[in-house]
């Protein structure tokens, strides 16, 4: 598996998270057009294997954890979820913390690959362990957890709430494009609620260690102060507009796909159970 990121992805990543250049939609579109003309459309998906290596276990753990946390907190039905909205919100946050904690080194490796040339994910881990030590694999973890608490909590809470309201008013459970739409709304709200901490997380993950062993972004508060002092408050929402497209699409498809697969598997299980009873 090759995890090398394209030049286009690395530069876009740097523009959004690190550059002092003012971010504009027009500039982003022109940049992508120029990159495609130089490298071709396939370049926009180069390095996707590295993203999949992280997102597959992350999503699997998150959805599984969400179901378990809802059950443990007693909000695993539409009625109980509506009666205890705070516990419902907490269930989503705990699911995000669980999955992020289990896969964080992969997230850090993916961030490093976006700003530097590495042949594979393995090369990232080998270099980090050799040059910076195992503890570096969890640099930025605190900012990530603080960010994933509102992100996952708001996303799951919004998505489930919209489905429950649809069931109440329409009399049927939503499906198909409606679930994608609800997931998109949830993703947009979740992304917005946690975006400033996402900026901090990326800065801490990709910071290069100085010769004396220190980092330019040692902790959350100093990083927040440094960004605000050198770049102003707009730096904390830089690139958010483009994430309002990417995030909602990704979350919408993810939530809708999960629901469809869960429904299909439940129907298959019920069918087999009925067949066994009739034999």
UniProtKB/TrEMBL annotation:
Signal peptide: none annotated. It holds the Pfam family Mito_carr. The keyword Repeat applies. Keywords: Membrane, Repeat, Transmembrane, Transport. It comes from the Eukaryota. PROSITE patterns: SOLCAR (PS50920). GO terms for biological process: transmembrane transport. It is found in: Membrane. Solcar repeats lie at residues 1-72, 83-165, 174-264. GO terms for cellular component: membrane. InterPro entries: MCP (IPR002067), MCP_dom_sf (IPR023395), MCP_transmembrane (IPR018108). Coiled coil: none annotated. It is a multi-pass membrane protein. Belongs to the mitochondrial carrier (TC 2.A.29) family. This is Mitochondrial carrier protein.
């Amino acid at each position: 598996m090759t995890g090398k990121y394209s030049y286009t992805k690395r530069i876009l990543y740097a523009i959004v998270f690190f550059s002092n250049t003012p971010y504009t939609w027009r500039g982003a579109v022109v940049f992508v057009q120029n990159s495609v003309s130089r490298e071709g459309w396939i370049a926009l998906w180069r390095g996707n294997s590295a993203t999949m290596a992280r997102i597959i276990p992350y999503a699997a753990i998150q959805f599984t954890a969400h179901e378990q946390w809802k059950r443990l907190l007693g909000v695993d039905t539409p009625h109980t979820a509506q009666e205890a909205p705070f516990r419902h919100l907490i269930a989503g946050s705990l699911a995000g913390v669980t999955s992020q904690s289990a896969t964080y080194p992969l997230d850090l490796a993916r961030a490093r690959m976006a700003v530097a040339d590495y042949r594979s994910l393995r090369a990232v881990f080998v270099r980090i362990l050799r040059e910076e030590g195992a503890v570096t694999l969890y640099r930025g973890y605190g900012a990530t957890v603080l960010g994933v608490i509102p992100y996952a909590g708001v996303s799951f809470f919004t998505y489930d709430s919209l489905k429950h309201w649809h069931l109440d008013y329409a009399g049927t459970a939503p499906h198909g494009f409606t679930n994608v739409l609800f997931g998109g709304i949830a993703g947009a709200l979740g992304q917005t609620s946690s975006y400033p901490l996402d900026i901090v997380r990326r800065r801490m993950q990709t910071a290069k260690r100085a010769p004396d062993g220190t980092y330019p972004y040692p902790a959350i508060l100093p990083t927040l102060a440094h960004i605000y002092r050198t770049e102003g408050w707009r730096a904390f929402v830089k690139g958010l507009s483009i994430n309002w497209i990417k995030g909602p699409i990704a979350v919408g498809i993810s939530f809708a796909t999960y629901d469809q697969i869960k429904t299909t598997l439940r129907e298959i299980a019920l069918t087999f159970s009925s067949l066994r009873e009739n034999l």
